[in-house]
User: Which sequence fits this backbone?
């Protein structure tokens, strides 16, 4: 935490009770979100030190490839193949000559090997294999690794990403980060999926790239007529539900938790 909790008596609050009163949706005011996050949290010094020691060079293209379960989550996004992501990376290298090296954050070791085969002339860096995050094993090393990947992505010159809040938060850590998603973020709940929904889409210019984008962005929330107009505007935070919806949720909680 970025603050020291006040001393004295404490009162436990039910998270369900808090959710019944007021919920806020977060948007795309990245400087505001950065300031909000840093009011309460900070990256531990041990993570910043490891990121410094990794020493990303200038002109690093960052890729976040979420495979495993994420490529099966059709309610959330569309499957992104190795070739899909590496083709987008190739487009980025060609469009931005200042990009020289590649940093990959991924839960699939095979993707790193595929990237080295695709770009034999470029330095490809990675933190190494990591255990599956839904294995049920709780350990600080894995949590540290996730945060370190996020911090390193935030230090890249440009980032391309699959659907994942981990890499989305790199934009919160560094609002000026040029970061793009290569696949749809679908409207599968009552608000756009933060922060991914507000990461801009990668715009391919080639015919093959545009065909790939048409497939990967199918069902994207930006094209979904169900999304309320208030979520399409730039904002830091706003009530997640309308007034009558908030009262209905509160009444339901009171009636079921008397």
Assistant:
């Amino acid at each position: 935490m970025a603050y020291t909790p006040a001393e004295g008596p404490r009162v436990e609050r039910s998270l369900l009770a808090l959710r019944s009163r007021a919920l806020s949706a977060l948007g795309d005011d990245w400087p505001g979100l950065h300031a909000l996050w840093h009011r309460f949290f900070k990256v531990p010094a041990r993570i910043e030190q490891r990121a410094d020691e990794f020493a990303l060079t200038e002109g690093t293209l960052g890729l976040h490839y979420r495979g495993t379960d994420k490529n099966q989550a059709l309610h959330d996004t569309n499957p992104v193949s190795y070739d899909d992501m590496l083709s987008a990376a190739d487009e980025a290298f060609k469009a931005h000559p200042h990009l020289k090296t590649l940093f990959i954050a991924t839960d699939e070791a095979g993707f790193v090997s595929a990237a080295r085969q695709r770009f034999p002339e470029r330095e490809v860096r990675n933190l190494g294999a990591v255990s599956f995050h839904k294995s049920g094993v709780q350990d600080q090393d894995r949590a540290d690794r996730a945060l370190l990947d996020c911090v390193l992505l935030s230090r890249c010159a440009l980032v391309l990403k699959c659907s994942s809040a981990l890499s989305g938060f790199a934009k919160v850590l560094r609002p000026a980060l040029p970061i793009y998603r290569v696949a749809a973020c679908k409207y599968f709940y009552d608000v756009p999926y933060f922060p991914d929904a507000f990461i801009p889409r990668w715009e391919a210019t080639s015919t093959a790239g545009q065909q790939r984008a048409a497939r990967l962005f199918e069902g994207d929330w930006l094209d979904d007529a169900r999304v309320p107009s208030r979520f399409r505007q730039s904002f830091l935070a706003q009530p997640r539900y309308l007034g009558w919806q908030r009262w209905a949720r509160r009444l339901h909680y009171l009636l079921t938790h008397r």
